[in-house]
């Protein structure tokens, strides 16, 4: 039990470090808090609260992972290196994907609860995002870079 308590305090230290050093983590925490307060005030059903909690937490988890990867890369290779750049970019991309997922969940749930909107608006955002990935990642050959590992 003592060991569990110690691990918990280390984890809290990590959260404190993330909150103090990462602006994005602070913003995401505040948005998450707002989302949860709104869910409470709107008295949303349990399954919607679960989706909103999942969406909020996954963004915070991905931001933590992104920060960890950035710190590891800066530690093992403080100089400019294109591979480090690619690793950091991909790491940031994962946060963006989680954020878009959260926006889709937010639009579906709050859109319906506040404005009576159809869930289709959430689907539209997801389609636009996924289509944008294809559109902006197109190479001349039309099938990505052809450099898959
Ligand atoms: N050592 C490096 N070599 C090559 N490119 C890098 C390097 N460090 C950063 N970059 C590029 O700059 C971008 C931003 O990196 P950085 O580590 O500053 O992330 P950040 O999101 O600004 O971090 P922070 O959370 O500290 O503000 C990376 O996604 C990458 O494209």
UniProtKB/TrEMBL annotation:
What Gene3D superfamilies does the record point to? 1.10.287.3610
Q: Which keywords does this Swiss-Prot/TrEMBL entry list?
A: ATP-binding, Cell membrane, Kinase, Lipid biosynthesis, Lipid metabolism, Magnesium, Membrane, Metal-binding, Nucleotide-binding, Phospholipid biosynthesis, Phospholipid metabolism, Transferase, Transmembrane, Transmembrane helix
Q: Which residues cross the membrane?
A: 25-43, 90-115, 121-137
Q: Which Pfam families match?
A: DAGK_prokar (PF01219)
**Compartments, record wording:** Cell membrane
- Any one cellular-component term (Gene Ontology): plasma membrane
> How, per the record, is the cofactor bound?
Mn(2+), Zn(2+), Cd(2+) and Co(2+) support activity to lesser extents.
**Where along the chain is substrate bound?**
63
- Please cite one Gene Ontology biological process associated with this protein: phospholipid biosynthetic process
Q: Which residues form the active site?
A: 63
The cofactors named for this UniProt entry are: Mg(2+)
Lineage, top-rank taxon, reads Bacteria
Q: Output the InterPro entries linked to this UniProt entry.
A: DAGK, DAGK_sf, UDPK
| Gene Ontology terms, MF aspect | ATP binding; kinase activity; metal ion binding
Binding residues annotated for ATP, in chain numbering = 10, 70, 88-89
> Topology in the membrane?
Multi-pass membrane protein
Residues that, per the record, bind a divalent metal cation:
70
Q: Which family does it belong to?
A: Belongs to the bacterial diacylglycerol kinase family.
The protein's matches in PANTHER family, at most eight in alphabetical order, are given as: DIACYLGLYCEROL KINASE
Protein name (database record)? Diacylglycerol kinase (ATP)
